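Table S2 (text version). Query chain:
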Amino acid sequence: MKNVKNLSGILTLVLLTMFCLSSCDQQPKDVTEQIKQANATFMEAYSNGDAHALAMCYTVDGKVFPANSEAIEGQEAIEAFWNGALGMGIAKADLQTESADAIGNMAVEIGKYKLYAKNGQLIDHGKYMVNWTKVDGKWKLHQDIWNTSIPEPPMKGAWKLVSYKNIANGSVANNFPDGQLEMHQIKIWTSGHFAFSGTYTVNNQLNDNYGGGSYTLKSGNVFSENIEYHSAKQMVGTSVKMLIEVQGNILTQIYPADDQGNYDEDNYSVEKYERLD
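Corresponding structure-token output:
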């Protein structure tokens, strides 16, 4: 993925190329309102979950440049890409055009985006640059590149649980490894999603423990985990705010917490993990 400086460099190169290909006395034309209308069509298709309509917003040989991926070219491949994004739970895309200038049938747009889950929760936000081409009188996305403005999460990667303590009404209710509880668990964080899997043993009874979903940064190092599946079915559909701190190869998470990272010292759980990757 390109950073902001690279985006600015690409924009400069594109504009220079456009000037070279056009007559020397031709000046850029502000087409911001036209591009906003084209983006409205894109956003409507996204809200409708229509990957085919999204692909039709691009030129036949259009390209998208997603993060952690090679460029994706052509309407068929672009349709598959957006179909995958819709399947991941990204339900709404909000595009905000900051500027759009054209020379002839080519235009460059700079803007900001926000992505939302089905429940209206903000998943991601960032900036983008699009090279547009006018085809049969309609503006089509030709080259589409974006990157997030959310910092890389410090907990991204795979971790092994090394200790757990649950405090209830000011007393230790469960403790591992120093108590009667035996636990084995791996937890993985990616960009915006998490999953964990393991077992715990109580009174010589082995139990499965697993779950996962999406997470969002609330403030500072306070994250909200939105549970989409869980071995304890009553947890599905709930959200848990937690304070997460990473020091070297050790990650500590304390929950439940509020948006400022405060928690009830008489009622909380704390888990510590050691990095595996």
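Notes on Table S2: The CA atoms of residues 47 and 244 lie 33 Å apart. Residues 1-5 have pLDDT under 50 and may be disordered.
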